Amino acid sequence: MQKSNYLFTSESVSEGHPDKVCDRISDMVVDSYLSKDPVSRVACETLTTTNKVVLAGETRGPKIEKEELISKVRNCIKDIGYDQDGFSWKTVNIETFLHEQSKDIAMGVDSKENKDEGAGDQGIMFGYACNETEELMPAPIHYSHKILRLMAEDRKKGTLKGIEPDSKSQVTMLYENKKPVKVTSVVISTQHSKNLNQEKVREAIIPYIKKSIPENFLTDLNKKEVYINPTGQFIIGGPDGDTGLTGRKIIVDTYGGAAPHGGGAFSGKDPTKVDRSAAYASRYLAKNIVAAGVSERCLIQLAYAIGVSKPLSIFIKLANGDESKTEKVKKIIEENFNLSPRGIREMLKLNNPIYEITSSYGHFGRKPTNKGEFTWEKTDKIDLFRL
């Protein structure tokens, strides 16, 4: 049983982190196919290293020429901000080895005898929500994301000078009676130009902590517990400093470790893959349950088998442990939500090219847009869950 008082830490990484560069490119490929045919199938993995990008995976849908994808890869890298000797959007060597999806997978997913279509893979997916922030996200991961997102925005505007795209953040918070009460440490490591010393780096970065975290959480934060580039220097970064791969930051993508993770990555996968769509659906359910005031926290697990449309199980855990309330919530879900892969896609409108924006700063706790992005963050089912 978890203690009532404890320290908890979550980290985030910027869009310029090597793994996030890969997530961005893989999700760009998904969007490229869905924009041409909303029933396309995509499973794209990306690798990056010094001045090299490699794409591999399976697709089914419209023909997209390699030159078009390579051009879009360069645009992704350019937008992130990489024009360095070891990794530049202008000179990076890009190879693509995408090929047609396995007929065995297609047979299970598209079975004509199953009008709801089967899941694109087996597995377990988790959704979580809590009332620690307005976005109903755990506070440590929410503030870790916000620090890096604000830094990236100003870096691209040109108002944060000398700071390069590759950054990481980490926020530790003290919980009392299972509620966050203050920040006890912050770590930010950021790539910087050669002509910026560590004193200047610290001077540039400290304001983003204050912009991102409410003042009442920072009143007791000791300056010695704010670590900016603790190794002393971070000039060589990005894919030139470390190899990147799609799907290696799954805890960053979700709840910062505050909730379980089924193990499947999101980026590079079309929404028939329940690793992605069912994780979005379970977050959607959990968020509406918490927003309705049913519980301070809600964890939901969904389980699937490849080629089978309905979930094999639905598990719900509420903060208060009230079993009768849990059963009522489960009944509401079973009677009102079609959690087959097709049902989820239709409910959340997931067949649209909406994924590139999800590749950095978290898939959850984001604002739905008028372009159809982050539909799973809507709280439009509150009335349904009021008990």
Number of helices: 12
| H-E order | EHEEHEEEHEHEEHHEHEHHEEHHH
Principal-axis shape equals flat
Overall SS class: alpha+beta
Residue share in helix: 25-40%
> What portion of residues belong to β-strands?
15-25%
For the largest beta-sheet, the strand count, sense and barrel status come to: 4 strands, mixed
Please state the CA-atom Rg, rounded to the nearest Å. Answer: 21 Å
Using DSSP, what is the number of strands?
A: 13
Largest sheet: spatial strand order: 1-8-9-10
User: Quick check: average pLDDT?
Assistant: 93
Note poorly predicted spans.
Answer: none
Structure in words:
With 387 residues, the chain is of the alpha+beta class. It contains twelve helices and 13 strands. The strands form four sheets. The protein has a four-stranded mixed sheet. A four-stranded mixed sheet has the order 6-3-2-11. The longest helix has 19 residues, at 18-36. The protein is flat, with a radius of gyration of 21 Å. The two termini are 27 Å apart. The model has no long low-confidence stretch (mean pLDDT 93).
